[in-house]
Amino acid sequence: MARPRTFKNKDLSQQQKDFIKHYIKSGGQIEQSAIKAGYAPANASSQGSKLMRNPKVLEEIDRYNRNAMSRAVASSAEVMQFLTRAMNGEIKDQFGLDATLSDRIKAAVELAKRTVDIEQRTQNNTPQISVTLDWRK
Questions:
Q1: CATH top-level class for 14-72?
Q2: Which residues of the chain have a pLDDT value below 70?
Q3: Buried b / exposed e across 71-97, counting CB within 10 Å, b at 16+?
Q4: pLDDT value at position 118?
Q5: CA-based angle 136:69:122, to the nearest 5?
Q6: What is the domain partition of the chain in residue ranges?
Q7: What is the pLDDT of residues 76-110, one digit of tens each?
Q8: Going by C-beta distance under 8 Å and a sequence separation of 6 or more, which residues neighbour residue 118?
Q9: pLDDT of res. 117
Q10: Report field, pTM of the whole predicted structure over 0.70
């Protein structure tokens, strides 16, 4: 994972910022991240635990995770564009061959399902429900 480029919270100390960068880069290794951020190895575990209870630190980690997730998951527009390109035969298979007619039909069917679903939601004004899970609880 890439390191966060900017920090939203300007109240973080440089050592806290370094901890966050190392924590993200290491995939969540608290003690090692604290050591790399400059905390004494003898206190790294307890300092790391304190940092992971600090709301400002957690906010930055959460912000990074949200941004990373939004970059990692294809948007509905990207999916629709891909299906359209597949349906139109613009995408080759792993051997560089044109998509088969059956693959193009499958893409068209998937595209139609999504189009109909979007049209029905728009016509019915179905309220959208958003669920946010907090992994810290």
A1: mainly alpha
A2: 1-5, 70-73, 116-137
A3: eeeeeeeeebebbeebbeeebeeeeee
A4: 54
A5: 105
A6: 14-72, 76-124
A7: 788 888 888 988 889 888 888 888 888 888 888 88
A8: none
A9: 57
A10: no
Structure tokens at 67: 């941004």
Query: How far apart are the C-alpha atoms of 74 and 82, rounded to whole Å?
Result: 10
What pLDDT is recorded for position 1?
46
Report the pLDDT value the prediction gives residue 28, as an integer from 0 to 100: 86
Residues 6 or more apart in contact with residue 43 via CB below 8 angstroms: 34
Residue that the structure tokens 């998509």 belong to: 99
Residue 13 neighbours by CB distance under 10 Å: 10
Cα→Cα distances 41→24, 35, 52, 72, Å: 19, 6, 17, 34
The count of other CB atoms within 10 Å of the CB of residue 2 is: 11
Q: Which residue has the tokens 């790294």?
A: 44
Report the distance separating Cα 71 and Cα 20, nearest Å. 19
Contacts 24+ apart (CB under 8 A), 17-21: 19/48, 19/51, 19/57, 20/57, 20/60, 20/61, 20/64
First-to-last C-alpha distance (Å) of the chain: 24
